[in-house]
């Protein structure tokens, strides 16, 4: 009976060591995820029209994810990334009404080479366009240049 208890203790000690050594290692995808700042917020951006470097085709439905440093524009709600804009590079955010039910959101920024860009988004849903457009405008302004982060740090 004493040998069985001893064997069980040794086996349990081995399992604990094995699990402990595996938890310290990260796979390539885990280390890549660690590089990406955590998502702070995600909101609808209507339709993408033009202006993101590397994305020439319009997209019917896009969303914007806010990370520690960037606005990340994605296809659909959680689809592939089509563009990334540094939050602190934003120079202007404007919203205008086009016709009775459409709204046009323009996001201007300067890239690392001081080249000016303007991304254009459109909200056309007859029932939701105004609310979605105003929500996108307010959320972009809230997170622009880390203003919300600085306010939160001041309250801490």
Please, could you describe this protein's structure?
By secondary structure, the protein is of the alpha+beta class. It has two domains: 2-32; 37-155, Pleckstrin-homology domain (PH domain)/Phosphotyrosine-binding domain (PTB) (PH-domain like, Roll). It has helices spanning 2-23, 28-35, 129-143, 147-155, and strands at residues 41-44, 47-50, 62-66, 70-75, 81-86, 90-98, 102-110, 116-123. It has a four-stranded antiparallel beta sheet with strand order 1-3-4-5, with helices on one face. A hairpin with a 5-residue loop joins strand 7 and strand 8 (116-123). The longest helix has 22 residues, at 2-23.
Q: Which shape, going by the Cα principal axes?
A: elongated
* Biggest beta sheet summary: 4 strands, antiparallel
Q: What pattern of helices and strands is seen along the backbone?
A: HHEEEEEEEEHH
| Number of DSSP helical runs | 4
- CATH architect. name of the largest domain: Roll
CATH class membership of the largest domain = Mainly Beta
Domain count: the total is: 2
Fraction of residues in helix = 25-40%
Strand arrangement, largest sheet?
Answer: 1-3-4-5
Number-wise, the strands total 8
Mean pLDDT: 80
The fraction of residues assigned to DSSP E strands is: 25-35%
Q: Catalogue the unreliable spans.
A: 22-34, 149-156
Structural category: alpha+beta
User: Which homologous superfamily in CATH is the superfamily of the largest domain?
Assistant: Pleckstrin-homology domain (PH domain)/Phosphotyrosine-binding domain (PTB)
Radius of gyration, Cα only, in angstroms? Answer: 23 Å
Cα end-to-end separation: 59 Å
CATH topology name of the largest domain:
PH-domain like
